[in-house]
Amino acid sequence: MEPDPTMGGSELSRLKSQTEQFNRSLHSGRAPKQELGRDDFLKILITQLQNQDPTSPMEDKEFVAQMAQFSALEQMTNIAGEFHKLSSLLSQGQAMQLVGRTVEVQQGEGLVAGVVEQVTTGEFPQVKLNGSYYDYEDVVRISQ
C-alpha cells in the first residue's frame, strides 16, 4: 500500500511507528503462527478503524462483513472448545468402565497387562494396574 501523498512527514512517521509497534506486539515473546486468531483479528480491525482516512471512511458493507467474519470465528472457537470438553468427558466415562477389567497398555515397545484397580479423572484420565498409572489413551486391548 502506497503512503498517502497528502500526509505530512510527522503523520507518516507516526503511522510507521504505530505499524511497527503493532507488528512487534504480534510477535513479542512467542513464535509466529500460520493462522490468525480472534485476538489478531480484533487488533487488525481496531487498527484499521483507527487509521482510516476520515475523508473516505470504511464502507458500512465492509465493516458489517468483517464483523460477520469475526462472529463466525468466535462461534467456531466456542464450538472447538466445547468439542474438546465433550471428548474429555467421553474419555473419562470410557475409562471408568474399565475398573475391574483386564487391559493391555502400550508402554514403549512392549505391553503391560493387568486388572484395572483405579481410574483417575480429568482432562487426561489414567488407569492404575499393577500399582502403576498409565494414560487411558495407551490402552490397546480390553478383556473380561
How would you describe this structure to a colleague?
- With 144 residues, the chain is of the alpha+beta class.
- The protein has a domain at 70-144.
- The protein is built from 3 helices and 5 strands, in the order H-H-H-E-E-E-E-E.
- Strands 4-3-2-1-5 form a 5-stranded antiparallel β-sheet.
- Helix 2 (38-50) runs antiparallel to helix 3.
- The longest helix has 37 residues, at 60-96.
- It is elongated and about 80 Å long.
- The termini are far apart.
- The model has no long low-confidence stretch (mean pLDDT 81).
Features:
144 residues, alpha+beta, 5-stranded antiparallel β-sheet, 3 helices, elongated
Q: What is this structure, in a nutshell?
A:
The chain has 144 residues and is an alpha+beta fold.
Radius of gyration over C-alpha positions, nearest whole angstrom: 27 Å
Please bin the fraction of helical residues: 40-55%
End-to-end CA span: 68 Å
What can be said about the biggest beta sheet?
5 strands, antiparallel
Order of helices and strands: HHHEEEEE
Q: Walk across the major sheet and give the strand order.
A: 4-3-2-1-5
Strand % is 15-25%
Low-confidence sequence ranges: none
Helix/strand/pairing category:
alpha+beta
Number of strands: 5
Shape: elongated
Mean pLDDT: 81
Number of helical regions: 3
What is this structure's SSE topology?
Blueprint: H1 9-27, H2 38-50, H3 60-96, E1 102-107, E2 110-120, E3 126-129, E4 132-135, E5 139-143
Antiparallel strand pairs: 1-2, 1-5, 2-3, 3-4
Helix pairs in contact: 2-3
